[in-house]
Specification:
By secondary structure, the chain is mainly alpha-helical. It contains 47 helices and 10 strands. A hairpin with a 2-residue loop joins strand 6 and strand 7. Helix 11 crosses helix 15, helix 31 runs antiparallel to helix 32 and helix 44 packs across helix 46.
Length: 958
């Protein structure tokens, strides 16, 4: 008979927690709930109960569990669960965009060989979006069992999901043993910060053991001595209760009679021997062959494939199935649905009990035979078979073979994006191969980049590569080259340069190209990020050497990296040369099937097209290509550029929404470089709206996350703060901000070219007389001056210089070119009109320009520039339209005193202790008019004198 409880006993509190979580999930308030407890305490039973409730309520239920076959297999629980979505109607993938190819790593139906390998965080975001898409139709329950068996990547995905399911109709329900380990620590951290709930299952009380016993035996009357014995021997563990009951019934110690259940004989059995004896008793009844079948299965793990067991035992199908059916009847194993031809032990303790009965020599022999069978059945050991056979070889005592297989499994895991699992496997490999210095070096060659991927940079440098003195110099140099790349990834640029120096010393002057190419390209990227006046030229020289060496040594990946960097560097001086470099990288990528390099080359060429022509058609096409390839980083890179384009073209509402949305994603995905770029774009957006407080706040956020020498820094001054100052009519401050941008770039040359040093700074320098023709020619010689955003300002500067020389027709043509370039940038175009109008009396139409600018800035709510335009119109003798709006900009306490908009403009400038002449110049009114406004302000605010009024203005502006 089935001595199993038909219902959950003694778990009222736990059931309430589960039902409450399911109820909230149906209201789109999902989250994570973790069931913890010792082995056999009932976690899986409660999870099955929850799944049943969810099914009954019409929810979608998908399940996965930690691998129990060999070492940890990356993403197994997640992949198993997601595959459940494809056993009926496949999920709608229309909302996944570029994240669909990323999921190909988990879902074979979506696998694309040309797609790129992204980080675990990106994969976690893809899983989140898929679950959200599924749950839009039907709330979803994701059940993941045995997290203590899960790999590091699965745990990272679970943490990401737990942090982001709060507003989704998705519940993550996971089980984990209360055994010390990374998984339990992670769960406790998530619960502590509020990213999930914790339900800890405790042992049953004696009364609950009695209830469970009655449920198992399907009878109300249970002998008291039986309950006492079960309570004593099981210590309240439900699984052990059932196992002991089954052993007693099958062994004839407990029988059903007319008066109910009766105990025959002595019940006393020690625990855990009681459980082991129970399992041994049942396996003995299966016969020698049946016991061998289950012993081989236990060697494989808690779940096992029939094909391997059959190969080892050399039994036919009928005999094998007969043994398995007997094992199922004995409640030792169960079919592992939905995997075909796989079985699993009913509980992990069952497999452990079987292994405990094997002598060491017997277990080693079974492990060796099983490893041989797997290798014969699966040549090359694809997928999960490689780490499984590595474990079997280890159990068989073949340490070198095991180490080499763990190393291969680690290399495969890293190539598949599972860096955490790669580190675990490679660590095991290097421990097993510690006496073979060459084999260990090969392991370190993969372990170092794996540690960089996981962010464990300090441990990478603690591996004591320098101590491998017995290793060939070229192999040691290769490891130091790897360390230089680790240092670059970590942002430890100076340490990276030191690793390059060590590698060059080891290689000597006549090193072959295949060793120097990667070293040179690493050095180029490091040099570009170390602040110095010549970093651009030095990086270019190194990159060119790397490209040539890589070409000779036929290293296409290194050559692509070098040509990409050369293209980035060439942008400032020659866009055509930059495109040629990117074209070479693209050709190499296509010839050698390197999808990520292909997409990067495309996006950089599209970026050049955007810079030169101001159009985004190429970027849009590249974005679509990146989405198809699953190149998430590239896709978000394009999104960031498009967000900045919306700022420059005056689509401020669209820009604000896109910047905030992208920032949420890049922050969540830890794309630090893109986060910096977007914060710069956010500062630019605020500045172009004339919002000083928001500009300073965004720049402050940028500086809080940016490292010294961040290449976007100069844009914060020249593209953001300088324009904010111009919209405040503070031209002196604007010039100072642009000079600061130039100073930053002179100390740390940048590969970004919209900071104003090739555009607005040239125009302001010409207007205030600092720049003559020779200065102008020097400032505009680089190709960056011809980029469309910069070109609108340099063309205006040319027009002013031509007009001053009396070359009016040429000045008008230069102005026309400026307007053509500025056509898509409304704010910049009208600001340019306001700036050059005072210079255009002989060759332009300043009155018309000022009226256009005044109307634009008035509608935009920028009173400072609109007021300046009206002042210039008055000076030109033109009639000026009166504007009576803008009072909302006057603080409430000043409006209560009757302060007008114009008086408030004077009041704001008084905070800086400016004199009447300086205020008049700023507002384009006479000093005498300023004096009248000051007198009126003193009277209206009740201040005793001008000094007190200035102090009041300064205090109010804080």
């Amino acid at each position: 008979m089935q001595t199993r409880a038909s219902h959950v006993v003694g778990r009222d509190r736990e059931i309430a927690a589960v039902t409450g979580a399911l109820s909230r999930t149906r209201e789109s308030r999902g989250g994570a709930l973790f069931l913890t407890g010792e082995a056999g305490i009932g976690k899986s039973r409660l999870a099955r109960y929850a799944a049943g409730l969810a099914y009954d309520d019409g929810m979608r239920v998908i399940k996965g569990r930690g691998t129990t076959i060999g070492p940890m297999v990356p993403f197994r629980p997640i992949a198993e669960a997601l595959l459940g979505l494809f056993r009926g109607d496949p999920p709608d993938d229309s909302a996944l965009g570029p994240y669909k190819p990323v999921l190909g790593a988990l879902i074979p139906e979506w696998h694309d060989p040309s797609s790129t390998t992204e980080s675990v965080v990106v994969l976690a975001e893809a899983v989140l979006r898929l679950l959200a898409s599924v749950a839009r139709k039907t709330p979803c329950l994701l059940v993941l069992e045995d997290l203590h068996e899960a790999d590091a990547e699965t745990l990272a995905v679970i943490e990401y999901l737990a942090d982001n399911l709060e507003d989704q109709p998705v519940l993550l329900l996971a089980t984990i043993r209360t055994e010390p380990g990374n998984a339990l620590e992670l769960v406790r951290r998530m619960v502590q910060r509020g990213s999930g709930g914790l339900v800890e299952l405790h042992r049953l009380s004696q009364d609950e053991v009695e209830q469970m016993t009655a449920a198992c035996l399907e009878g109300a009357a249970v002998p008291a001595e039986l309950v006492d014995r079960l309570w004593t021997d099981s210590a309240g563990n439900p699984f052990v209760v059932e196992e002991l009951l089954h052993g007693m019934v099958s062994g004839g110690l407990l029988v059903a009679g007319a008066q109910g259940w009766q105990v025959l004989g002595e019940l006393k059995l020690p625990v855990p021997a009681a459980f082991v004896r129970s399992v041994a008793h049942r396996t003995d009844r299966l016969g020698p062959q049946g016991r061998e079948v289950l012993s081989i299965a236990a060697v494989l793990g808690h779940r096992f494939p029939l094909s391997v067991v059959q190969k080892v035992t050399r039994t036919d199908d009928r005999e094998l199935l007969s043994h398995l059916h007997a094992g199922v009847a004995a409640q030792l194993v169960t079919p592992d649905e939905p995997a075909p031809d796989w079985y699993a032990f009913r509980h992990p303790l069952t497999a452990d009990a079987l292994l405990a009965q094997l002598a060491p020599a017997e277990r080693a022999d079974l492990s060796e035979r099983t490893a041989d069978a797997v290798e014969e059945l699966h040549p090359g050991l694809p997928g999960d078979w490689c780490p499984l056979v590595a474990k079997l070889r280890f159990d068989a005592g073949a340490q070198t073979q095991a180490g080499l297989l763990f190393a291969e499994a680690g290399r495969r895991a890293l190539a598949g994006g599972a860096a955490g699992s790669a580190v675990t496997l490679l660590d095991r490999a290097q421990q097993l191969l510690e006496h073979d210095v060459t084999a260990r070096a090969e392991v370190l060659d993969t372990l170092l980049p794996a540690l960089a991927e996981t962010g464990d940079f300090e441990r990478a440098f603690a591996l004591d590569v320098a101590g491998l003195q017995a290793l060939d110099a070229s192999l040691r140099a290769k490891l130091h080259t790897r360390l230089s790349r680790v240092a670059y990834t970590a942002g430890w640029f100076t340490e990276g340069v030191e690793q390059v120096r060590i590698a060059r010393t080891l290689l000597g002057p006549d090193a072959p190209d295949e060793l120097t190419a990667q070293l040179d390209v690493n050095s180029a990227y490091l040099t570009l990020n170390i602040p110095s006046p010549d970093r651009i030229s030095s990086a270019a020289g190194l990159a060119r050497e790397a490209a040539l060496a890589a070409d000779r040594a036929r290293l296409p990946t290194v050559a692509c990296e070098a040509w990409q960097l050369l293209g980035i560097i060439a942008r400032e001086q020659d866009l055509d040369e930059a495109n040629a470099c990117f074209g070479k990288a693209l050709s190499l990528a296509d010839a050698h099937r390197m999808p990520i390099q292909h997409v990067y080359a495309l996006v950089r060429m599209a970026g050049n097209d955007w810079l030169q022509h101001g159009t985004t058609a190429s970027l849009d096409r590249t974005h679509a290509e990146a989405c198809r390839a699953g190149a998430i980083t590239v896709a978000h890179n394009v999104d960031a550029i498009l967000a900045l384009q919306h700022v420059l073209t005056g689509d401020y509402a669209v820009a604000a929404e896109q910047i905030d949305r992208c920032l949420q994603t890049t922050t969540r995905l830890r794309f630090h470089a893109l986060t910096r770029y977007l914060l710069m774009a956010k500062a630019t957006l605020a500045a172009h709206r004339g919002d000083r407080a928001a500009t300073d706040d965004a720049v402050g956020r940028f500086e809080s996350v940016a490292k010294n020498g961040a290449q976007e820094h100069s844009l914060c001054f020249g593209l953001a703060r300088a324009f904010c100052a111009l919209l405040e009519e503070n031209h002196r401050l604007a010039a100072a901000e642009l000079d600061r941008a130039l100073d930053v770039e002179s100390q740390n040359p940048t590969t970004f070219h919209l900071s104003g040093t090739h555009g607005m700074r040239v125009l302001l320098g010409v207007l205030d007389g600092r720049f003559s023709w020779s200065d102008f020619e020097a400032q505009t010689a680089a190709s960056a001056a011809g980029m469309r955003w910069n070109r609108q300002f340099t063309s205006l500067a040319r027009a002013v210089l031509l007009g001053r020389d009396g070359r009016h027709a040429e000045a008008a043509e230069a102005f026309r070119c400026a307007q053509e370039a500025a056509a898509i940038y409304p704010m910049a175009r009208h600001l340019g009109l306001r700036l050059v109008a005072p210079e255009a009396a002989g060759w332009g139409d300043p009155v018309t320009w000022l009226r256009s600018a005044e109307e634009y800035f008035h509608q935009a709510g920028n009173t400072a520039v609109a007021s300046a335009c009206r002042g210039l119109l008055r000076q030109a003798g033109a009639p000026v339209q009166q504007r009576r709006t803008g009072t909302d900009q006057v603080p409430r306490q000043l409006r209560g005193h009757g302060v007008t908009v114009r008086e408030f403009e004077v009041f704001v400038l008084l905070a800086d202790r400016m004199g009447n002449k300086a205020i008049g110049t700023r507002l384009h009114i006479s000093p005498r008019t300023v004096e009248k406004h000051v007198a009126s302000l003193i009277a209206k605010t009740g201040q005793p004198d001008r000094e007190s009024l200035s102090a009041y203005a300064a205090a109010l502006s804080r």
